[in-house]
Structures are given as C-alpha cells and as structure tokens.
From TrEMBL:
GO terms for biological process: attachment of GPI anchor to protein. PANTHER family: GPI TRANSAMIDASE COMPONENT PIG-T (PTHR12959:SF11), GPI TRANSAMIDASE COMPONENT PIG-T-RELATED (PTHR12959). Residues 1-16 form the signal peptide. The chain crosses the membrane at residues 485-505. This is Gpi16 subunit, GPI transamidase component. It comes from Rhizoclosmatium globosum. It comes from the Eukaryota.
Length: 536
C-alpha cells in the first residue's frame, strides 16, 4: 500500500515538476531589540498548463506586471530588516499595474475609456480574489498615471499603460490571508505555509502580504509565462509573549504551529534560515538541528513528511550597535500648519551616501480635497553634518496634474538628484476643501488618510520608498448637532408624556388619617380641631 502511494506521488511529481517550477523559503531574522522578522517567500511560474486564478486574471485584462500589497502596522521594523528586493509598504493597500497597450495604433491618453474599463475590471477581479475592497479604486478618483515612477525591467512604457492606486484605510485580516494562501500549490497543508495562523500573524507589530506578477514573453516562440511571487513579512515580538521577558522563542511560540514537512512540489528542496545579529550563536533546542552555512546563518532543511520544530535562547552581552542598518536614502513627510483651513507638507529626503549623488523621482498623489499651491513650493538642500550649510539647489524636473473636484487627484512628480551626504527639504502648502456632508466617512472627526509619497530611487535595480500616511482633518460640520436635538426633544417629550399620562391614568385619592397614638399628638390634634370649629 505504501509503495503504491509512493509511486503515485512520484508519478505526480514527474508530471508536475517540469511544468510548475515552484520554490519557497522562510527567513527568520533576530533583531537586537528582541523582535523577530519572518519573511515567507513563495515563487512559482505559471505557464498555462494548470488553472490559476491570477493567471486567468492576468490574461483577461492584459496585465504585464502587477504589484499588490496589503499592510498593517508601521514600516520601520520592516526597513530595519533590509530585505533585498522587497519594499516596505505603509499601512493599507497599494496596487500598481502595467497593462498591455499592444493595440495598433496604441491608444493615446485622450482615448482611455478602454483602459479605464480594463482597470476597473482588474480591480473588481482582484477584489473578488482577495476579499478586499479593491473595487473602491474608482478609475478616475483614486488612480494615478505616473510617468517616471514604477518603471519595471522588461516593460516598455511606450507600449504599456500604468495605473497606481492606494487605499490607506484598508484593513487587512484573515479573510484576505486565506485566499492569498490558497494561491500556493500546497496551500497551508505542507511547507512553510503550514505555519500560517491568523491569530499569531495578525498579532504582529507589522505584517505585509504581497503579490508580484511579471509576464515574461519569449519573442521567438511567442509563448508567455507568468512569474508569480508571493511574500509575507511579519515582525513578531516573542519577548512580549514570553513570561520571563528574555529572548527565548521557538516556532511553537511564534506561530503556535510547526512545519509539517516539505511541500512536494518544491523539487529543489526548501529550508528555514535563521539570522542572528552579528552572526553570533545561540542555544538551540527542539527536535530539529541547525546547520551553519557559509554566510554564518543557521539553516534547517525541510524534508518530505518530516516535522520541523526548533527553539533558541539568545543572550548578547555586547550587542553590536554598528550593524544597525541605516538605509542609503530616507524619506519622511510631516504636516505643517494648524487649523482646519490651510496646511502644508514638509518632505525630507536624505542621501546618506557620503560620495555618490543619487537620482530619484518623488511622486505625490493627493486627493482633490487638498488644493495644492504650486507657487509655495520650496526646495532647500543642506549638508547632513552641518544643517546650516545650504548646498546647490537640486535640478528639479517636475510634472503637475491639477486636480478636478470629485473626479481626479492632483499628481506631482519631481525628478531630482540628491547630492552626497545631504538632506533635501521640499515644502508646499494647500487649502483644505469644505466637502459635502454626505462625503464624510461615518466617523467624520477621525479625518482623512492621505496616501504616502513614493520615492523611486534610480539605481541599477530601481526600488521605491514609501513615506508615512498622514491623517488630515478637513473642516467638519458639527455632526453631533442632530443627535443633540433628537436627545433634547426626546427628553422633553418623555417628561411631558410622563406627567400627562400620570394625570390621566392615576386616580387621586386622599390619604387615610391614621389614628394618633401618643398623648401629645392626641392633645395637639384636639386643639387643631377646636381651632377649626371656631373659625368655621
Ligand atoms: C476611442 O476609442 C473608441 C473605441 O475604441 C472609439 O469609438 C472612439 O472614437 C475613440 N475616441 C477617440 C477620441 O479617438
Ligand atoms: C525557553 O523556553 C522553553 C519553553 O518555553 C523552556 O522550556 C526553556 O526552559 C526556556 N529556556 C530558558 C533558558 O529560559
Ligand atoms: C536639469 O535637468 C534637465 C532635464 O533633465 C536638463 O535638460 C537640464 O540641462 C538640467 N539643468 C542643469 C543646470 O543641470
């Protein structure tokens, strides 16, 4: 029986392996502050031999490249992990896609109705696939068409059409994780995905779920394949979960699960890698033994049907502060001004590289209810070491799209070169619109989340940095007034009704006089009666 089963698995592998190239990897990184970063990465090649939901969507809407991220929490912990090729997106949902424009002649920007309907179709399909409100990305209202940002290798901007949108208030939850995990060939039954546990993943300080899709076409055979990468990044805090407040964690403590063995479709074998600060060692315990690899990381290879569970205690007497990662380019955005009428943004772009200038593109997509004043735009560049020394103003090339109320956002795109070891500050001001009362969200006084600015750093491998999401309060009518009126009216009606109801329904009866008992009382009442008689 076992032999037949094994043969069946082998036969299945033999047919499956040449078509579906699949690989997965889990990287656990111990941070000096006690947090543990877990990066689950899964990649597969979809070549049309088996049905896959995302492949069907990509073919239907002519998607050449798509990036979708669902994120919760602050991106700081993710940035410190320094994940190669992974951008630390801010909270909410970020989606950008390049759609094919291979019609001849290519559609111009004047004739975008076809693209709008395809983009709407794509967002609706993704909304259905991931159980998220991606369908709220109304083509004109929130979507933008940047020119210089989001360039992808192998995608010709002349022959493709780019759309970018964010939903900063989108909340990510288990209902998004389940469909996301279902896109994996082994789902959560085997492989590293068997660690997925909604309770622990969504308890993390930061978690981000990604889908990256790239279409690769062979120009000779005209055959297209789709590369699908799925990444899940979580920053867990085992010290918070631990009773003795020390760095002592295991897969069981982090995820309340263990790995059930290798996913059989991952023919090259996969592993769990653990990186400790400064390449130091830890005390290991549990069923599985680590192997130290050439880079100083600890590796747990996965095998078919063999459970993996391990734990470690880590204590660093002399933590190395020097290897705390500082990104070369940093971007921060702050709100300036006060009141609910006007305001401004301050953007700080820092180039920490002491020798090389850096060419970047900054993209701001602002909702129409912030009226931007381009004449207030100011740029200053100062040296990092000496904040007062003003360096040459960078050469800015800018593109600006004016917003149209209720129909399109304003887009500001700058290309500039950041001098070495410098901080560039960009400041501009805006007015806040007084919007209709029906346009306010149900919790009107919370404010509006302004999408992050995006900085594209043009290096050999261009990457993007996202700024903070800002919460902006618009002039808000006193929504509590109707409730005050209702409360007061109800109170008055209740008081009036009670009194009138009492008068109508209750019969008035005199109290029976209780015979007096005490001598002084008898005497007193006798006197009262006498006086009464006399006066009558
Ligand atoms: C845009 O395309 C549609 C159909 O593809 C066509 O009917 C329409 O005339 C075009 N509009 C312009 C301005 O070219
Ligand atoms: C680490 O935690 C495990 C399980 O919670 C426990 O058995 C072990 O004694 C702990 N080790 C240390 C050094 O505290
Ligand atoms: C500024 O940039 C533009 C476009 O890249 C270029 O044409 C121009 O020569 C630059 N000016 C300076 C002073 O470098």
């Amino acid at each position: 029986m076992h032999l037949i089963g094994a043969l069946a698995v082998l036969a299945w592998l033999a047919t499956a392996s040449p078509t579906s190239q699949y690989s997965e990897h889990l990287q656990l990184t111990q941070r000096p502050n006690g947090k543990v970063g877990a990066h689950f990465s899964f990649s597969q090649v979809l070549d049309g031999t088996k049905y896959h939901a995302l492949e069907a969507i990509a073919h239907e809407f002519g998607v050449a490249s798509l990036d979708l991220a669902f994120t919760q929490g602050k991106a700081g912990g993710c940035k410190a992990l320094n994940l190669d090729g992974i951008e630390c997106t801010p909270a909410g949902l970020v989606l950008w896609a390049w759609l094919d424009n291979d019609l001849s002649p290519p559609l111009s920007s004047q004739n975008s109705s076809d693209f709008s309907s395809r983009w709407t179709g794509l967002t609706n399909a993704l909304a259905g696939t991931f159980c998220a409100s991606i369908n709220q990305i109304v083509p004109t209202k929130v979507s933008a068409e940047p020119r210089e940002s989001f360039r992808v290798d192998g995608v010709d901007p002349e022959k493709h059409w780019l759309r970018y949108a964010t939903l900063p208030r989108e909340i990510t939850c288990t209902e998004n994780l389940t469909p996301w995990a279902k896109l994996l060939p082994c789902t959560t039954k085997a492989g590293i995905a068997s660690l997925f546990n909604g309770y622990t993943l969504f308890d993390a300080d930061y978690h981000s779920m990604r889908v990256r899709l790239r279409k690769q076409c062979n120009s000779a055979s005209l055959k297209c394949e789709i590369e699908l990468h799925q990444d899940l990044i979580v920053i867990l805090d085992p010290v918070r979960k631990n009773y003795d407040r020390s760095i002592n964690w295991s897969l069981r403590l982090l995820f309340e699960r263990e790995i059930t063995g290798l996913c059989p479709l991952d023919v090259d074998g996969s592993q769990v890698t653990v990186t400790l600060p400064g390449g130091k060692n830890a005390n290991w315990y549990g069923a599985s033994e680590p192997v130290k690899d050439s880079t100083g990381n600890f590796v747990f290879p996965l095998e078919l049907g063999k459970r993996v569970d391990f734990g470690l205690t880590y204590y660093d007497q002399e933590p190395v502060r020097d290897n705390i990662f500082v990104p070369t380019i940093q971007l921060h955005r702050h709100l300036t001004g006060y009141g609910r009428e006007r305001g401004g943004f301050n953007l700080r772009l820092t180039n920490n590289d002491p020798t090389a200038p850096q060419s970047v593109t900054l993209l701001e997509v602002l909702p129409w209810y912030l009226h931007l004043y381009l004449h207030t735009l100011q740029t200053t560049t100062t040296s990092v070491s000496d904040n007062t020394r003003i360096l040459a103003t960078p050469n800015i090339t800018q593109r600006y799209q004016l917003s149209i109320p209720r129909s399109r956002p304003s887009i500001l795109e700058f290309s500039l070169a950041l001098p070495p070891a410098s901080t560039t500050t960009i400041h501009y001001e805006f007015d806040r619109a007084f919007i209709k009362y029906t346009e306010h969200p149900p919790d009107a006084n919370r404010g509006f989340d302004i999408p992050p600015s995006v900085l594209t750093v043009h290096t050999e491998k261009p990457y993007r940095i996202f700024s903070e999401i800002l919460l902006i309060a618009l002039p808000t009518p006193d929504f509590s007034m109707p409730y005050n009126v209702i409360t007061m009216t109800c109170t008055i009606v209740a008081l009036y009704f009670g009194t009138v109801f009492n008068l109508i329904v209750k019969r008035l009866e005199g109290l029976e006089r209780i015979p007096p008992k005490k001598a002084w009382w008898k005497f007193w009442m006798k006197k009262v009666d006498e006086v009464k008689e006399k006066t009558e």
